[in-house]
Predict the structure of UDP-glucuronate decarboxylase.
Amino acid sequence: MASTGRVDLDGRPIKAMTICMIGAGGFIGSHLCEKLMAETPHKVLAVDVYSDKIKHLLEPQSGGASLPWGDRIQFHRLNIKNDSRLEGLIKMSDLIINLAAICTPADYNTRPLDTIYSNFIDALPVVKYCSENGKRLIHFSTCEVYGKTIGSFLPKDSPLRQDPIYYVLKEDTSPCIFGSIEKQRWSYACAKQLIERLIYAEGAENGLEFTIVRPFNWIGPRMDFIPGIDGPSEGVPRVLACFSNNLLRHEPLKLVDGGQSQRTFIYIKDAIEAVLLMIENPTRANGQIFNVGNPDNEVTVRQLAEMMTQVYSKVSGEAPLEVPTIDVSSKEFYGEGYDDSDKRIPDMTIINRQLGWNPKTSLWDLLESTLTYQHRTYAEAVKQAISKAVAS
């Protein structure tokens, strides 16, 4: 394929490639497709059952002007679990990116079978076709594969809990510690870990070229759904969309088990920069597992709720609620079998060494960008839905 005039981190020309992106219609996929169309010459075969989040990339703009990237993105509506066309699309491509997954914590408990099938069984043919056809694979895993930190097993008052060795998560040395089998919340993490092990084994035994990505709470516009507006009316999205939904409806934010869990959050646009480096630097990315997060943006879920309340008040011009948060138990919120990881702080040594990448956006800035989008996109629809419900 032709060179593009762009060079990789080692000064080699980057060749235009065809990328088969499975799960292209989701949150991460839509941002990655935008980046590839705007900044690279690569072609994308976008595979998903939904195209709502990428329809602006597929359809001519108002006024009938053709898209600046022409036909470099093609949408293929198919479900990877039972479609024979998948192997053909993989054979036509230079690189396969697998983003397909059920990845909402509320589902791990209530739909553990679907969760395990989606994240392990359905991914098996993708890995097999890549291995058999000599295709490179970038597979999206999760920071959940780490489970709980070693620190969480130390006594509550132990000073060792403050030592990073017991809570910072490293790709190559941190153990992966899950709760007991009856805690079905770990169905997701366990399925994701097993597919990682399978991919690694395909690399070791059959020479599969792979990169595994472990996202640490990527957030930004188009993430998740707002219940009853652009998603099911029943169902619980992830924390950011959950809190956004409460803010839009002027309801207190629900803190599960007091909101004590600690998380780091990274802006989707920073994270996508890292993925583009993986795509275009195979010699540095192959065989690697990469944490992609922002250790500087660490907060408890309670602190996140407080920050989001302040930011939303700023972007919407509305006064915050007098009682902005309420505490709920995990059993009440998620049902039986819920369990949680205590802290998720990524070690960034490997991605920094291999790709020279560091995240840039502060937590306040990424929340402001995301909540501005949420307010602009949903405030009116939520207002109408509330007034309809009151009228009826």
